[in-house]
Each structure stands twice: as structure tokens, then as C-alpha cells.
Design goal:
By secondary structure, the chain is of the alpha/beta class. 46% of the residues lie in helices and 22% in strands. The chain is built from eleven helices and eleven strands.
């Protein structure tokens, strides 16, 4: 049964004339007749007595009118609630995070998200971690509003707004001869087997790390892949090779069996950026980026 049929019944009960009722509802008269026949079949009652000269509502139909009116009122209430719910959902920012493997496990991110939540208390900030490729696809298809990702991102159809940089350090097994040094040089790294983040897990961070190693540090000898900071530290501690970590992650990831060393004359960094679709921002998104701007300015 369709709500439209109930509306036809109610209007026809008031007009008791098929043509006038159809005109009020802006439909064709045959559709009005079809709606009443469907209701009479579904309910098993006669609603109107029809002759060539008149249409009269039956006594049974009169008793059903209050019930029909309640149903239509309830449906109108649902419509109003749906509109309000839609508006509430539109006051949401769907935020994707990608790059926890190499750089987003960062105290700056913690503080940024806290600041944004407090500044935009009337907007639902819904944050979810994504694999890099999924994050980019979700931004493109509109499933996400904003992304925060690690890597030197290059996407012509997306806007990339740089947020901060994080110096790159080396992670060395304590049993390795280089562990006794206070720093590690690029020449030292040329002789080492390296452990890097797996591209299937974090393609953006992996691409940036590979580029930094190849262009800024060494021609790499990749020995192993890791899919998390803890996994990488376990491989390094076990002696599989040397790896890299964002400076901000060192204090958060103390680990027996490894040493963290700065890399001499190393310009390589992990870049963190905000990403969104080109072609304009919603008002909520603009509020988000204004809160981000305020946060970054307060941090100097």
C-alpha cells in the first residue's frame, strides 16, 4: 500500500468527486480510480458508491477516515524527522587518516584532533584510519570529506595542503656495529640491509620513504617490509636490518634491542598533509580548515 493511495482516499472523501479530487492532487483521474480500487481490494471493503451522477463515501469508509488521517500525520512526522536527520548528518566531517606506519602516530596529530573537536563542538568529527589507496579512492568518490596522510602526495584531482614535516631517523639493532655511534651517515647506510614499510599497507608513506632513501640517502638494498611501527621495530631488534622512523615517534615507541640515531646531513622528512577534493568545500569543511590554520599558527 502506498501513502499516495491514502492521500487519494482522504481527498476523495472530502470532494466526493473523482475529477476534482484528481485535480487537487495533480494526477490523472484514472490513477485516482486505480488507487481507490487498490485500497478496496487490500482492505476488503467498499469505500465509495459510484454512479454516473455521483460519488458517495460509504459508512465503513467514514469510520476509517480517522485511522487514515493518523497514518498520514505519522508519515508527515517521519518526513520532518528525516529532513532534520539529513541536516544533522550534513553537519558531519568524515575524516580519513592514513600513514600510521611511518608518520601519523604523532603528538601533533593528537593535539590537532583535540583542538578541532573543541573548536567544532557542534559538528560531528568522524575519524577513521584507512589504507592509503582506500583513502584516496574514498576522497574521490565522496565517501570521505577530508584526509590526513603521510607522503609527498601528487594527485591532480585533489588539493594537497601541507601541515608539518617530521625529521627522519635511523633505527639500528643494538648488536650492530653502528649502534655504538652517536649519529649515522649516509655512507654507513650504503652497506646496510634496509627495512621499509610495505606499500600495500601504506602506499603514500612507502613511496615517500623509498624516494627519500633513493634520492637523499642511498641506493637502497631492501631486505624486509613492515606493516606497522611495532612490526618494524621487532624486525630491527631481531637483526634483519636497519630501518627509519619519524623523530616524533621515538619517545612513543621505546624498545629494547634497538637504538635511534639521527642521520647526518639528511634532509629527508616525513611530510603530513591534508587532502580534499578540488571544486569547493562545504561550510563544515571550511570550518575544519580554519581550525587547522589556527592550530598550526599557535604552534609557530
Amino acid at each position: 500500500m502506498r501513502i499516495k493511495y491514502l492521500q487519494c482516499f482522504l481527498v476523495l472523501a472530502e470532494e466526493q468527486h473523482f475529477r476534482r479530487a484528481a485535480e487537487r492532487l495533480n494526477i490523472q483521474q484514472p490513477l485516482m480510480s486505480l488507487a481507490i480500487k487498490r485500497l478496496e481490494t487490500d482492505w476488503g471493503v467498499q469505500l465509495f458508491k459510484r454512479t454516473q451522477r455521483s460519488t458517495q463515501i460509504t459508512e465503513v469508509a467514514k469510520r476509517l477516515l480517522p485511522d487514515v488521517q493518523r497514518v498520514l500525520n505519522a508519515y508527515a512526522e517521519v518526513q520532518r524527522n528525516a529532513a532534520q536527520a539529513t541536516q544533522a548528518v550534513q553537519q558531519r566531517i568524515r575524516l580519513g587518516l592514513s600513514g600510521m606506519t611511518v608518520g601519523l602516530a604523532h603528538p601533533m596529530l593528537d593535539a590537532l584532533l583535540k583542538h578541532v573537536r573543541e573548536e567544532l563542538s557542534d559538528i560531528d568529527l568522524y575519524a577513521t584510519e584507512y589504507e592509503h589507496g582506500t583513502l584516496i579512492r574514498s576522497l574521490r568518490d565522496g565517501t570521505l570529506d577530508v584526509g590526513i596522510a603521510v607522503g609527498h602526495l601528487r594527485h591532480e584531482d585533489l588539493v594537497i595542503q601541507k601541515l608539518w614535516y617530521d625529521p627522519m631517523w635511523a633505527v639500528v639493532p643494538v648488536t650492530h656495529p653502528l649502534a655504538k655511534s652517536s649519529t649515522i651517515s649516509q655512507d654507513d647506510l650504503k652497506q646496510c640491509s634496509l627495512i621499509v614499510c610495505h606499500p600495500d599497507n601504506d602506499d603514500g608513506g612507502s613511496e615517500q620513504l623509498r624516494a627519500a632513501i633513493a634520492e637523499k640517502i642511498v641506493e637502497p638494498t631492501i631486505a624486509q617490509y613492515a606493516s606497522s611501527v611495532q612490526g618494524m621495530l621487532a624486525l630491527v631488534a631481531a637483526g634483519f636490518g636497519i630501518s627509519f622512523i619519524a623523530e616524533s615517534q621515538i619517545a612513543r615507541n621505546p624498545r629494547d634491542g634497538v637504538r635511534f640515531l639521527p642521520i647526518e646531513a639528511c634532509e629527508a622528512t616525513f611530510q603530513v598533509s591534508a587532502v580534499y577534493r578540488s571544486g569547493g568545500l562545504r561550510p563544515e569543511d571550511r570550518q575544519f580548515f580554519e581550525a587547522v590554520r589556527q592550530f598550526l599558527e599557535s604552534r609557530g
